[in-house]
């Protein structure tokens, strides 16, 4: 089915200096199991698009459908529930909680979603082991390398078994060699679980590894 559908999505920032229409009419369908590269010049609105698609920001017009349901127009609490249950995010910076171990960073979102600590720990261990971090479970993020930190962030994004992964330059802070490896691991786990993914990148080499590329230009996707 269609995991993510954007129809005529509009988003304008209103400010002192006037209005900035970032999304004018964005249309996109990402099907289950499909990995789509989102490519655009800096400032074109990639982050805005990912935030609207991920129900973190509201569109001013158009619709956002998640698994066939018009989720964009739901009240805040319902949007939060859809986001928690079906969407995982990975950002350029890892945004891990510095006071919590690698494992706890992956456990906490699951407990917030209602899973028992025991089940959350089992799942967290399995996810981190899948990323080669089985010996790093109790490390604080500050004790991990950049690549390891980003692997934990990816494991956290997958912790609640999302159907849709949204990523904003997920390996953009890593050196080229590490980025290459971590990106391949990300693609492998997304494919293994048959998730839909929309991944913003500046890197044509990374875009070429995905199923197709959409370009954001003048507030539209092509
Ligand atoms: P990208 O991720 O492609 O670099 P963004 O979505 O971050 O682009 O930003 C698109 C445009 O909207 C930029 O000109 C940016 O300065 C502006 N912008 C982003 N967020 C806001 C905001 N909260 N308020 C006003 N303008 C914003
Ligand atoms: P669970 O028993 O927690 O429901 P599954 O049997 O569905 O887990 O999956 C087996 C393994 O795959 C576990 O390590 C789990 O953490 C991981 N996993 C399950 N679903 C996903 C997903 N959508 N994304 C990433 N990893 C997942």
UniProtKB/TrEMBL annotation:
SUPFAM superfamilies reported in the protein's UniProt record: P-loop containing nucleoside triphosphate hydrolases
Domain of life: Bacteria
InterPro entries (alphabetical): AAA+_ATPase (IPR003593), ABC_transporter-like_ATP-bd (IPR003439), ABC_transporter-like_CS (IPR017871), ABC_transpr_LolD-like (IPR015854), MacB-like_ATP-bd (IPR017911), P-loop_NTPase (IPR027417)
Keywords assigned: ATP-binding, Nucleotide-binding, Transport
CDD domains in the cross-refs: ABC_MJ0796_LolCDE_FtsE (cd03255)
Cellular compartments per GO CC: plasma membrane
GO annotation (BP), single: lipoprotein localization to outer membrane
Domain ABC transporter residue range list: 4-221
SMART domains: AAA
GO molecular function: ATP binding; ATP hydrolysis activity; transmembrane transporter activity
Family: Belongs to the ABC transporter superfamily.
Full protein name: ABC transporter
